[in-house]
């Protein structure tokens, strides 16, 4: 158990230390480390958890870490996962803030960041493609996909309301479709 | 005393941050106005530092703000206080989910949410590509088109899709290419 706790702390420390620039940049990392390499969850489950944490108070990365680890390894594992997320950035910023007042205007840092932005853009394109493959399966889901994409792109609706709206559509249309399927099944029989 | 104040204020920020790191910004501006820990101009610096350091933006900003207010202990206290609500709320959500996850209506809800999240992430991906290559920011203003960024992106994208290497490799390559070719 002690080893497992340290392993979980290490995995999430590595994910946190590899992420630059906000919550969604962590998705490619989690897909690689947790879905592809360890098989802890599927792309679909990761999408579900990501949707949930969007509507939940707190930090996306910590919320994801806890929601992924607790059902599999228990509450203590969740605490270690959260610590893993917090420790690397804490140390880096403590170190940097005691060495330099503000290094972010240096040209070398700016060029490195511009390059990293291109890499992260390519990684997130790949993540989006994987989520489309696991989430968009029929006309109904394609419609929800397009509505969400356009609403966020035009920046007119808070993402929380998009997710809540999609949840509502899922309940209303889902029960209708299940009813239709039952009817069709009844006719065949 | 300053440590207690830091703990309490960042605990509150941790509870009221919904949907990502930049959501903490209004709270930091409010702190800058209420205490003499740091100025509003320094809050802008915090965003810049947070964007070029690894980890969640909100954690980066909390550590930096805490150090400005109360030195290294201040940084540690502000960071832990900010993280604590996420941990507590998530543990609670896990307990609730364990009871409800297998219900039919939860499955229907997620069937609706999955394509919507795919849409949200696709929208973010498009915005990121526009920003990284065409230099168009979220307000639709063009900053600078960079053909070097475009070439790098077109070379990188098939590699990301086909090679399936650890993402940190691409981040490191991006930093090196950015410095060498002055993207």
Give a concise summary:
The complex is a heterodimer of chains A (189) and B (183). Chain A has 189 residues and is mostly helical. Chain A has helices at residues 2-18, 26-37, 43-54, 60-73, 75-99, 107-135, 139-153, 159-188.
Description:
The complex is a heterodimer of chains A (189) and B (183). Chain A has a domain at 2-103. Chain A has eight helices and no strands. Chain A has helices spanning 2-18, 26-37, 43-54, 60-73, 75-99, 107-135, 139-153, 159-188. In chain A, helix 1 (2-18) packs antiparallel against helix 2, helix 1 (2-18) crosses helix 5 (75-99) and helix 4 (60-73) packs antiparallel against helix 5 (75-99). The longest helix of chain A has 30 residues, at 159-188. Chain A is globular and about 60 Å long. The relative contact order of chain B is 0.08. Chain B is an all-alpha fold and 183 residues long. The mean pLDDT of chain B is 85. Chain B is 78% helix and 0% strand. Chain B is built from seven helices and no strands. Chains A and B meet through helix 1, helix 2, helix 3, helix 4 and helix 5 of A and helix 1, helix 3, helix 4, helix 5 and helix 6 of B.
Task: Pick out its properties.
heterodimer; A: 189 residues; mainly alpha; disordered C terminus; B: 183 residues; 2 domains; flat
